Amino acid sequence: MEPILEIKNLNSFYRQGGNAFTKGKSVQVLKNVNVTIGQGEVLGLVGESGSGKSTLAKSILGMTEYQGEILHRSRRPQMVFQDPYSSLNPAFTIRRIVEEPLRIYGKHTPAQRKQKVEEMLEAVGLGPEFHDRKPAQLSGGQRQRVSIAAALIVRPKLVILDEAVSALDVTIQDQILDLLMKLRREFDLSYLFISHDLNVIYQCCDRVIVMKKGEIVEENTVDGIFDHPVHPYTKQLLKAAE
Fold this sequence. Notes:
Layout: E1 3-16, E2 25-38, E3 42-46, H1 53-60, E4 67-72, E5 78-80, H2 84-87, H3 94-105, H4 110-123, H5 140-152, E6 158-162, H6 170-187, E7 190-194, H7 198-204, E8 207-212, E9 215-221, H8 222-227, H9 232-241
């Protein structure tokens, strides 16, 4: 499987404490992290709060400083966040929200943007009756469909899903997961799927990495992780999810 992303010996730090006169203490968040994501693969990333999952995602997106190598073999990846309501501009219509990345990209005429937006909204299951609504007029699941459309409109090959279904009820979760798998096939996407919900990870991922305190403690196929966990921390997570 051709890799679409390779991360080699990634280390990340943040400053703890300090003030206008002192820098504070340097705390290491990620410790020699190595990750490869193949083209078309769904890689799950699990670990408790503070394990470094979000820092890894921010590093991939170029949102934080790091040491090491991150090799992209496609356009810069996009992210779908946990809470679509806070990540969508409440003053914009759905059409404008999805169109905005194309405006920033600046390589399409207004007519081309209109067509691409309509096609993408159709792909995520939002027909013309939704295009002129604003986020407050949509349900949580519909807002997450808008977030997915906005992430995919620039046609990335890698999408980071940061707890993308955890704020939804179980029925809507399943619908969004089905949509993500459909879009994966349709657009030949790879996903980095960050979730605390191991049932979701089992349902949609090909391979899983387990992080604890900034380090990868176990990596295997999804069946290998669930059926034959090796690290005590992985066993602990699985037991807690029962």
